[in-house]
Amino acid sequence: MEYKDYYEIMGVARDATQDEIKRSYRKLARKYHPDVSKESDAEERFKALGEAYEVLKDPEKRAAYDQLGANWQGGQDFNAPPDWDAGFEFSGGGFTGGDATDYSDFFESLFGQAHAQGGGRRGGFQARGQDRHAKILVDLEDSFKGATRAISLQVPELTPEGHVTTRTRTLNIKIPRGIREGQKIRLTGQGDPGQGKAPAGDLYLEIDFRPHALYRAEAHDLYLDLPVAPWEAALGATVKVPTPEGVVELKVPAGSAQGKKMRLKGRGIPAKQPGDLYVVLQIALPSADSEQAKKLYQQMQDELNFNPRSRMGVAA
Amino acid sequence: MKESLEIMTGTLIDDDKLFTLADLCRSCSVPAEVINDMIEYGIIEPSGDTAAQWRFAGGCLWRVTTVVRLQRDLEVNLAGAALALDLIEEVHELRRQLKINHM
């Protein structure tokens, strides 16, 4: 297993005072709290921080940890020396903070099962299993058709000897038609197993859409950037528009400006009251890469009195 | 593995799904007093007049569990957690808008 440098994780020197440790912990806890932080590894960092604080805040555990010596590097291969903690008295239950099952093997090898029983705010012998949260990536098309998605979860498990190991578990989840980004699906009893006779926790899956080449989803509405030719926008036209459920025709009114938003009612994500599809016009300029095209641009320049910067008070 | 063959259907938790006080307590693993306090602070707002008639929209589940985590992990009181929650939700909304406008 890997040696954990709790001082490095806590961002303090080895001779830091208990007050310094507490201050640093509070600051980092705010920074990496998974509900607050947008860092993708916030959850792991927060757990590592909780584990480090569990040891460093407790003078007894800290002294025992210090006794391993200062020559270890974080990540280095480590095995606890036999009777390493002889002569140390641990008073009271080990875990007062987070959840014991989240702590590393390193922690467990040092402060082990003997200290894992008592204390623990979630602890107690009859605790309901923890809820688990996971994100699941689906395609926008899945929301129109419904789908089944496989998801793999790392599940902590207690071995008969009382060690915590993880096991990979694969679940096939039905994605209902009309699912929206950010929605959550609850699978009752699919979280962590309870202790004693207590029930298992629940599994919550948050839906994330994989980025789509054409559409952006906002709640149950969709947005589509639709390129149009300058003459289609200027003169009006009927153009073909892709939608998730097939191509439709859209009438672009004469004199449409860049960025004009048009609504295709009920073409968004399906529901009892389906969302809408907003088409945002993007005027695409033909490139002047042929004599013919150059001539036409030249003709517009000569014959149209057009100053795009007239409102800026500068001449053409 | 057998379990990987089975297709599971969950419950969609959104604001169309309504919870009773007992449902919410069970789902969030908190006693009713905690829910009561959160109502007092305007963190969640049930519909219905009496506790027996209260119905909580699905979104309350996230607000309750987030506030519980903030209180436990960051040692903030209920008023502080409520403020943090409002700001967190605003940041999420702004990030979402940013994503939509810049894709």
Task: Provide keyphrases for this structure.
heterodimer, A: 316 residues, alpha+beta, Helix Hairpins, HSP40/DNAj peptide-binding domain, 3-stranded mixed sheet, 8 helices, 11 strands, 25% strand, B: 103 residues, mainly alpha, Multidrug-efflux Transporter Regulator, Chain: A, Domain 2, 4 helices, 55% helix, globular
CATH superfamily of the largest domain in chain A: DnaJ domain
List SSEs of chain B in N-to-C order.
EEEHHEHH
C-alpha geometry of chain A: elongated
Low-confidence stretches of chain B: none
Q: How much is the radius of gyration of chain B in Å? A: 16 Å
Descriptive report:
The complex is a heterodimer of chains A (316) and B (103). Chain A has helices at 6-10, 18-32, 42-56, 59-66, 105-111, 140-145, 230-235, 291-303; strands at 132-138, 147-158, 164-175, 184-187, 203-209, 215-218, 221-228, 237-243, 246-252, 261-264, 277-283. Chain A has 316 residues and is of the alpha+beta class. Chain A folds into three domains: 6-115, DnaJ domain (Helix Hairpins), CATH 1.10.287.110; 132-209, Sandwich (HSP40/DNAj peptide-binding domain); 215-310, HSP40/DNAj peptide-binding domain, CATH 2.60.260.20. The termini of chain A are far apart. Chain B has a single domain (13-101), classed as Multidrug-efflux Transporter Regulator, Chain: A, Domain 2, CATH 1.10.1660.10. Chain B has helices at 21-28, 32-40, 59-74, 78-101, and strands spanning 7-8, 11-13, 18-19, 56-57. Chain B has a two-stranded antiparallel sheet. In chain B, helix 3 crosses helix 4 (78-101). The longest helix of chain B is centred in the last third of the chain and has 24 residues, at 78-101. The model of chain B has no long low-confidence stretch (mean pLDDT 87).
